[in-house]
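yo

u said u wanted the structure for the complex thing, so here. seqs first:
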Amino acid sequence: MINIRNLLRDKIYIDQYLFISITLLSVMGLIFLYSASQGNIETVIKQSFFVIFGLFLMFIVSQPDPDFYKNNAVIFIIFSLILVLLTLFFGKEVNGAKRWLDLGVFTLQTSEIIKVALPVFLAAYLYDKPLPINLFNTFTTLVLILLIANLVRIQPDLGTSLVILIAGLYILFLAGLSWRFIGISTGFFILSLPFIWNNFLEPFQRQRILTLFDPNADPFGSGWNITQSKIAIGSGGIQGKGYQMGSQAHLDFLPETETDFIFSVIAEEFGFIGVCVLLSVFLFILLRCLFLAFNARDRFCRLTIGGLSLLFLSTVFINLSMVVGIIPVVGMPLPFISKGGSSLLSFYIAFGIIISMATHKKLMQK
Amino acid sequence: MIDINERYSEKRNFFKRLLFVYIFFGILFLYLIYKTFSLQVSSFTDYELASLENKTREFLVQPRRGIIYDRNGKIIVNNKPSYNLILNPERVDDINKLISEINKFINLSDAEIKNINDSFPNKKKLNREVVVKRNLTQEEIARFEVRNYKFPNVQIAERYTRENLYPYLFSHSIGYVGNLDEDELREILLSQGLKSSETIFTYSGGFLNGKTGVEYIYDKKLRGSFGKKIYEVDASGRLLEEKQLIPAIDGENIITSLDLPSQKVAYDKLNFRRGAVVAVDINNGAIVTYVSSPSFSVNKIANGLSQKEFNELINDDNKPFFDRAAQGRYSPASTIKPAIALFGIEEDILDWDFTIQDPGFFVLPEDGRIYRGWKKGGHGEINLKDAIIESSNTFFFSLAYKTEIEELRDHLSNFGFGTNVCIDCFMPDDGLLPSPRWKMNTHNFGWFKGDTVNMGVGQGYINATPLQLAYYSAFLATKGNLNKFSFVQDKDIDKNIFNSNNINDTDWDNIHESMIGVIESPKGTAGRLKNLKDYVIAAKSGTVELVSTETKEDYQIIREVEGKRDHAIIIAFAPMPNPKYAVSVVIENGESGGSVAGPVAVAVLNSLIEND
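structre next:
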C-alpha cells in the first residue's frame, strides 16, 4: 500500500483540490443540463462522455513537465492557428456562423483550442524577456493577440474573440506591461470606440448592446432573451422553484437553456441559495488557482497559471453578467456547466496544464 | 521551491498584478452577486408575477343570460342549445384526409372547408379548437354519433343561441339581443373587474347584450358575470393544461308581468294591421299585454339576418321595427272626454245635471268659426253622462271653451298625458301635451281659444302613445290611485295619488257609469261590443280625424286613400264594478274606435279575465 502511495506521489501529478472541485462542478453541470434540456437523456449522456473524456484528458495533460509546454508552445500555437484558418475556409456553417470543423466523430470549435494555446504561447514567449517588456515585444505580442482575436471575430464569434483578447492582455499585464503604456493604450482604445462600433460590429451585435441599456424597449424582439432571463432568475427567489420545476425554462420562454442561459435555469430552479453554492465552487477553483500561481516554480508557470485562470474567470464572469443583464448578450458558455464539447474540453485541457505547472517541482537546476 | 535566479521584486510585482486583477474581478463578482440578489430577493415578487403571467393565459367564460318568463311562468326567451362539430387539431396531421372523411356523412360546403383549412395551421400551433360545422341538425348529430369512435379528435360542442319562443309576439316588449361593440364590451368587463381577453363562448353568436326592450333595460341583471378559465401556456402561446376554473355566474332569470295568452290574442286580433295594444293590471301597474303591429322576428335579428331580409324590414312602409305602443303618437280623440268632464267638475264649471243644447256644431264666439260634431243635427238637449255615452263633441267644445289652457294642461298631465308613465319601458315617447309656450316656440303662433276647444275633444296638437292611453284608462279605473307601469315588479313602485278638491267618489262612479254606457246603453258609441263578453266593461272610443272634413260625403272621398282614413282608438277597463284590467287599443286608419278597435280590446280583456 505504502509503495503504491509513494508511487502515486512520485509519478502521478495531480492536484486533488482542483480535481475534486472540477469533477464536482462537472457532475453538477450534468444534473443541471438534464433539467435545462427538458429531460433529454441523450444530451446528458453525450455530455457525460465529454466529461469523462475531459477529466481523463485533464489528467493526461497534467502529467508532462511544464517545460514540455514551454518548448512546444510554438508548435501548439501554429497548429491551432492552422485549425482556425481551416475553419474559416472549410468550417461547418450553423446559423450563419462558421465556427466548427467537422472531424467525423466530433465537430470541433477551433476557437476553443486557440483560446488555450495563446496564453501558453505568450507565457513561453515572454518568460525570459527582460523586464519591463520592451516596446518591440509588446507590439509583436499585441499584433498576434489582435490577429487571432480578429480571426475568431469574423467567424463571427464575438464572445470567444473577447475572451482571447482579454486573456492575451492579462498575460501582457502580468508579465509586467508598464502602467504608462496601459494608460496610453486605454485612452486610445476609448477614442477608437466609435470606429470599432461602426466597422467591427455586426448590426445584430450593435442591437444587443443597445438592448442592454433598455431591454424593455422591445421586450418581444431583441429584448426577449434578457427579459425572459431576468424573469427566470428573479422568479427563482431564495429557494428556487425546485428541480425541473422552472416554468421559464420548461415552457420555452427562456432561450438557449442548455448553453448560454443555463445559469438562468439554475437560478430559477435552485434560487439564490443554489446560485451561492454554484458560485462558491467557482470561487474555490479560482482561489486555488491564485494560490497555485503564488507557489509556481518559475515565471513561465506563474504566467501560464495566471493567464489560464483569468481566462476561466473572465469566461464565467462574461456568462453570468450576460444572463443577469449587466453586459450585452455575446454568446458565452458557462464553463463545465453548459452543453458543448469543445468548450468543455478546452477548459479540462487548460486546468490540466495548470495542474502540470503547479505539481511539477524543479528537479534539475538550470 | 522558489527559483533563486528570479528577482524577488519581479515576483512581487507579478503577485501584485495578479491580485489586482483578482480584486478587480472580485469587485465585479460582488456586483454580480448583488445584482442576482436584487433580482431574486428584492424584486422577487415582481418577477414571480411576471413568470406567472408568462405561463398562464386567462380565458373569459361567457355566462348564460337569464331566462325571461311571462307572469304564469311560461318561458318567453330561452337559451336554446345548438351543436357545433369541432376538432382538436393537436393530434391531427392530415387535415384534408380528415375533412374528406367527415364530408362523407356530414355535408360541408366549400366555404366551410376553406374556413377550416385556413384556420387549421394557426389553431394547431396554439392548440385551439377548430369549428368544422355550426348548428348541426339532429340527423347530422346522429350520423356523427355512430361514427364517433373513428374520430378521436372530433367532437360535438354545445353552444347556445338566444331564442324567443314567440319571436313575433314580444318583439317590442322583450326586445332582442345583438353583438356588443368593443366599447360596450370593455365597459361591461371593467364593471366586473376583468380585462378583455380570449373568450370561451357559450353562445354561438359570441358576445351578446340586450339591444331593445326588457332585454336592454334589464341587461345587467340578465347578463350574469364572466367566469375565468386559466391555462398554462408555453412561450408560443400553446395551451398545455387547464389550471383553474372560476365558473361564470349565469344571469338572473326574470319574471315579467306579460301574459302570454292575452299577448297571443292581441297579436292575432291586430292581424298585421298597423296598431298597438297595451293592457295593464291596474292594481300594480303591471303591463300584461304589449303588442305593436306589424311585428318582426327577434330571433332572426339576434341570430343573423341577411342584408336582403334586413332591407325589407327597414324599407317596409308599415315600419315593423317601430314600437307603436310606446312611441306612436296619436290624438286621443273622444277618449279624452272623461278627463275633460272631470276637469269641468273639478273647476266647478258644470255638474252632472248640467245640460246644453247640441245642434251638431259649436260656434266659437270670438270669430264665428264652426266646430262640428260627428252626428249631423246633433244630440239635442244633452247632459254630461249622455255626452260621454254618445260622444257629443258640441258638449265638450263648449266645456273646453270655458277652461283655461294652463289649468287644463296641469289637470291632463295627472292622467299621464305628456309624461313618462312607465319605469322600465324601452325609449318611451312622452307624447305631446301642448301649451301656449310650446306653440309659440314650435309654430311661432299664439294660442287661440280654438286650440283649447279642439283639445276638449282630444284633437289638435295633443297626442299620446297607446301606453299613455292605457295609463289614462287605468287612471280612470283606479279613480286616480295608480302605480307607474312596469314589466317587472321586483321593487316598490310609488303610487301616484290624484289630488283634487271637488271630485268625489260619486263623480268617479258617474264617470264609470257613463263609460259603461258607451257599450251598454242603446245610444252608446260602442254598442256592438255588448254581446262580445259576459261581464261589464267601461270604455270610451275615439276616432282620430286625420283630415278635417265638412260632410260625410267629403270623408267618403278621403277614405279612398287608406293612409288618410281615421285612426280607431278605444280605452277600456273591466270587469265592472271592480275593474282589474285596463286596456288601450289603437288601429291606424281603422276608422271606427267602437267597431274596429273595440273588438280587439274586448278580446284581450276576455282573455285576461277568463284566465285569471
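Chain A has a mean pLDDT of 88. Chain A touches chain B through 49 residues (CB under 8 Å).
cya
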